[in-house]
Amino acid sequence: MNEKILVVEDEESINTLLQFNLEQAGFEVITALDGIKGLELAKAETPDLLVLDLMLPGMDGLDICKNLRQTQHMIPILMLTAKDDEFDKVLGLELGADDYMTKPFSPREVVARVKAILRRSQITTSSDRADSNTEFLEIGDLKVFPENYEAFFQERALELTPKEFELLVYLVKNKSRVLSREQLLSAIWNYDFVGDTRIVDVHISHLREKIEQNTRKPIYIKTIRGLGYKLEGPQ
């Protein structure tokens, strides 16, 4: 079955262009021209990925993103905007977007970005929960099952976006190593985000909220001043 992409974009010409190029790449595509319809489709159709414009009539992209994450819909989100605005970019990522592109853009680049996000966010279709026979990574009260796309903290399942999960797996696999923001950008985002290390900080902050009792005094994900981050177990 082809992966399903939902495109929410109010400019009809861009909407049609994205639909055409994504369908040519082999995806099933559904579309919406306003935010309210887009949110309805995101919840009803359970797409594999959402291409979401920032400025939309009815409900803007940031509100859609926030609503989906608050209701535990972890659909990967590629956000589009006509604004080359650092505040919008960081806010979108803070609300749970997985990636960000600024208009004007090449349709080929959108397709490539969609494919990259989907590759990194593939999850097992098995309905079985992780068990003792499944390979896992463990540190302290944190247990991660990379193949099952599952993570647990103190036996509680964590709700993670694809980017958060990928970052967590990378940190656990490199436990006790100091990783620079640039290293994490290269490993997790796979392309050049020159000057955008704030993206890493946002996702680290999200992870801390889910596995640290006190985010101001983290036990697991430590900030190494001037260098980057390090994940280690409780002492």
Q: What would you say about this model in short?
A:
With 235 residues, the protein is of the alpha/beta class. Helix content is 39%, strand content 19%. It contains eight helices and eleven strands.
Strands, count: 11
Spans where pLDDT lies below 50 across 5 or more residues:
123-133
Mean pLDDT: 85
What topology, given as strand order, has the largest sheet?
2-1-3-4-5
Name the overall outline: elongated
N-to-C span: 47 Å
CATH class of the largest domain: Alpha Beta
The H-and-E topology, N to C, reads as EHEHEHEHEHEEEEHHHEE
Supply the helix-strand structural class.
alpha/beta
Give me some keywords for this one.
235 residues, alpha/beta, Rossmann fold, Arc Repressor Mutant, subunit A, five-stranded parallel β-sheet, four-stranded antiparallel β-sheet, 8 helices, elongated
